[in-house]
Amino acid sequence: MEYSQVKSYLVVFLGSGIGGMLRHAFNGVLPRLLGFAFPYPTLVVNVLGSTILGLLAGYFAVKADPGQTWRLLLTTGMLGGFTTFSAFSLDTVLFYERGEIALGFVYVSASVLVSALALYAGLVFMRTA
Length: 129
Known about the structure:
This protein is 87% helix and 0% strand. It is an all-alpha fold.
């Protein structure tokens, strides 16, 4: 493996650790502030992560390109460790922007439904195995 590949993996590793710690902090603090009856941490993290990814993607595309290392650290790393919903949201919006509305609808539907069914199947399997 080349140095640049090793470097990119280490940058993502570092960023995802930071993002994961932030996610853990939200999971610990928000239920105490907002209550335990609703999954507030997941909702807040998903919306916040999607907002931040939108800001970063727009900045990188229009204002300045900080280079691959910073993109990997902030997006794949930190936001990936914080929430993968931001990547899902970006993919969805890109379908819309390209005018591929039907394909975007298929992507959203399949992602939500198939993921929920897969999780349910995993739960059922482990409960009955």
